[in-house]
Write a structure and sequence with these properties.
Helix content is 36%, strand content 25%. The termini are far apart. By secondary structure, the chain is of the alpha+beta class. It is built from 4 helices and 5 strands, in the order H-H-E-H-E-E-E-E-H. Strand 2 and strand 3 (90-96) form a beta hairpin. The chain has one domain: Kinase associated domain 1, KA1 (TATA-Binding Protein). Helix 3 crosses helix 4 (135-150). The chain has helices spanning 2-21, 26-29, 62-75, 135-150; strands at residues 43-46, 79-85, 90-96, 103-112, 118-126.
């Protein structure tokens, strides 16, 4: 009985270590949100057309909007840039949950919306599991509200 319990604890600790330490391959996770499929319950796809929701439009250039998004995302707890840059026109971030370290990936691209306006295409999804319970949507909406409040 003690050996079985020990094996279960070791397996659980191994799983938790894998979740926290698994490498994030930019080739797999740095994807264009304009061509991504909806993640369903595993996240949110926000874009001008054909997403789960439509992003607001801001009175600024796409470069300025992506820079504003970058500033908000980098200030978020447990969030780091995985790939891309404002200059490249697309950035992917990894945000980890506080206790377990589950990674969520957020790929963002700013899209011109005519005469000094821009909107966003954002693909936010989890890596492990089948449902994020609305966490990616809530995080993204909070980030968008911070951009709105800064403009």
């Amino acid at each position: 009985m003690k050996l079985t319990l020990l094996l279960v604890v070791v397996a659980l600790l191994g799983l938790l270590a894998y979740i926290r330490l698994a490498p994030s391959d930019p080739v797999r996770w740095h994807v264009n949100p304009l061509s991504a499929d909806s993640p369903g319950e595993a996240g949110i796809l926000l874009r001008p057309e054909g997403g789960d929701d439509v992003a607001p439009t801001w009175q600024m250039t796409s470069e300025d909007l992506l820079a504003a998004f970058d500033q908000v995302a980098r200030a978020a707890p447990r969030t780091r840039k995985l790939a891309g840059s404002v200059e490249e026109g697309q950035i992917t971030y990894v945000t980890r949950t506080k206790w377990m370290g589950f990674p969520d990936y957020v790929s963002v691209r700013a899209v011109p919306a005519g005469e000094g306006k821009a909107t966003l295409a954002v693909f936010s999804r989890l890596r492990f599991g089948g449902s994020d319970l609305g966490v990616n949507r809530a995080r993204l909406m909070g980030w968008l509200a911070r951009i709105e409040g800064a403009t």
